[in-house]
Amino acid sequence: MPNVFVISDHHFGHKAIIDFESRPFTSVEDMTETMIEKWNAVVKPEDKVFHLGDFSFLNLEKTKAIVARLQGYKTLVLGNHDRGRSRSWWLEAGFDEVSEYPLVYGGFFFLSHEPMYMNKHMPYVNIHGHIHGQKYEGVQYVNVSVELWDYTPVSFESIKSKLVPNEEQ
């Protein structure tokens, strides 16, 4: 059975992000290769990945080359740095689906780039990126920026298991 993963904020080709976020890479090429390896170490070709934005700062040809190396069926929710390019640009780059807006997954999870307003009475969880190494307090927010997950897509099942404690038999 295919697994479902979420991740955000790779910033492929963005040299300055290494310093901005204290990423442990010696160069933008080192960052690219490491993040592709970590993606493919967990994602299989039949799996589905929701990328929650800020994927690449590179041109179409270079972005397409990276997307082609990443396993899985890839859905991109556009981030603030992706929105300067059209949906068709991202589809041509190799994403299977592209959304300009947050998605609702499993009837309970809001998948967005930026954190969404969630009051404590709402029975939903917002899985998001955008804020990199920062975290919002509370169980209603899960930040899947690469810095918090060792640059590796996180399985939806592991997120759910952290949110819903196992009931004892």
Characterize this entry briefly.
With about 170 residues, this protein is an alpha/beta fold.
For the structure shown, list the relevant keywords.
single chain; 169 residues; 18% strand
What is the general shape?
globular
Through-space gap between termini: 26 Å
Per DSSP, the total helix count is 5
Strand content: 15-25%
Classified in CATH, the superfamily is Metallo-dependent phosphatases
- Which structural class best describes the helix and strand composition? alpha/beta
InterPro entries: Metallo-depent_PP-like
Protein name: Phosphoesterase
Give a structural overview.
- The structure is a single chain.
- The protein has 169 residues and is of the alpha/beta class.
- The chain has one domain (4-163): Purple Acid Phosphatase, chain A, domain 2.
- The protein has 5 helices and 9 strands; from the N terminus they run E-H-H-E-H-E-H-E-E-E-E-E-E-H.
- The strands form 2 sheets. A 5-stranded mixed sheet has the order 4-3-2-1-9.
- Helix 4 (87-92) links the parallel strand 3 and strand 4.
- The chain is globular, with a radius of gyration of 16 Å.
- The two termini are 26 Å apart.
- The model has no long low-confidence stretch (mean pLDDT 93).
